[in-house]
Amino acid sequence: MSSENPPSPMQRQQSSVQRQQSSVSDMGDPDDCFSMFLVFMSYIVQQYERAVVFRLGRIRRKAQGPGLFFILPCVDEYRCVDLRTVTCDVPPQQVLSKDSVTVTVDAVVFYRVFNATQAVMMGNISSSTTLLAQTTLRHVFGTKTLSEILGNFNKINREMKLSMDKPSDVWGVEVELVELKNVRLPHDMQRSMAAEAEAGREARAKMVAAEGEHKAAKALRDASLIIERSPAALQLRYLQTLNTISDKNNKTIIFPVPVDLLRVISTQLQSGSNAAFPL
Question: Per-residue pLDDT tens for 34-81?
Fold first, then answer.
């Protein structure tokens, strides 16, 4: 029975080198592998986006973007956050004013994310902003009377924005604008306000008419005083009246007769005198 000689150290080294070369050739070209690796590592975020990278579940660093960034496969993951302004409609709700009047109010809120790292901590930013706007709306309207609400929409909008700024900053959200869309009153309140407005208009009309009559009476009084002080003015007014009457095609013209003349005529008629009337 023949026995085989064990391989020499030189033979073992040559065999190891051959195996390594074989494994490298099985993997393919190293440049191709590196290119494929870069493809799976690189991502692009838009100008209006930011990418928050998590490494093994923890936020790695500040938000990435805009542009190209790299992550490690199987170790990193990322979440894109939109930084554009979002419109949020606040559904109509009934609120109670300071003077115990129930009104139905709806509004619209404009907000945007300014800190993507803080924003990813919120489950639903849109829902949270809507609920915050509803509670703020009830609080602000509860401190205003109905007349203040109807006459100061701009002031209420500013107060709501300031009230929402502090809690929304913690979320990484900036409230840009709050606008009241509509304030609806109960029907009986609308009727009473319409009646009150109508009464106010009638009162103002009566005041204007009374003021006009007062001015007219004052003007007549001043004119009578002027005529009383100047007999020539009375005669001029008499002639002006005759001229006005003659311009019209009237068949009957009435001439005013002095009272003293009528008294003389009456005396002569009673005495039965045939004497001539004095001129």
Answer: 565 566 677 888 888 898 888 888 888 788 888 888 888 888 888 889
d(CA 258, CA 260): 5
- Tokens for 163? 């009230």
Strand, coil or helix: what is 130?
A: helix
C-alpha span between 66 and 49 (Å, rounded): 7
| SS3 per-residue string spanning 60-78 | CCCCECCEEEECCCCCEEE
Looking at 3.40.720.10, 3.40.50.10380, 3.30.479.30, 3.10.129.10, the CATH number of the domain 86-185 comes to: 3.30.479.30
Q: Please choose, from the candidates 258, 262, 261, the residue with its C-alpha nearest in 3D space to the C-alpha of residue 235.
A: 258
Choose the weakest-confidence range: 17-31, 143-157, 248-262.
Answer: 17-31
Nearest to 118 by CA among 45, 176, 52: 52
| 253 φψ region: left (φ > 0), alpha (ψ -120 to 50), beta (else) | beta
